[in-house]
Amino acid sequence: ITKSYKVFSIFIVLLALGVFGCQNSSKKEQNEPEKLPNIVIIYMDDLGYGDVGAYGATEIHTPNMDKLANGGVRFTTGYASSATCSPSRYALLTGQYPWRNENAKILPGTAPLLIGTEQLTIPKMLKEKGYYTGVVGKWHLGLGSGNVDWNETIAPGPNQVGFDYSYIMAATQDRVPTVYIEDGNVVGLEEDDPIQVNYQKNFEGEPTGKDNPELLKMKWHHGHNNSIVNGIPRIGFMKGGEKAKWIDEDMADTFLEKAKQYVQQHKDGPFFLYYALQQPHVPRTPNERFVGLSGMGPRGDAIVEADWCIGEFIQTLQSEGILDNTLIIFSSDNGPVLNDGYYDDAVEKLGNHTPWGPLRGGKYSLFEAGTRVPFVVYWNGKVTPGVSDAMVSQIDILSSLAELVGSDNKTEDSKNLLDVFMGKSEEGREELVLEATSRTALRKGNWAMIPPYEGPAKNNSVNIELGNSSEFQLYDLSSDIGEQKNQAKENPEKLQEMVETFKQIRGA
Ligand code: NG6
Ligand code: CA
Question: Could you tell me which PROSITE patterns the record lists for this protein (predicted)?
Answer without folding.
Answer: PROKAR_LIPOPROTEIN, SULFATASE_1, SULFATASE_2
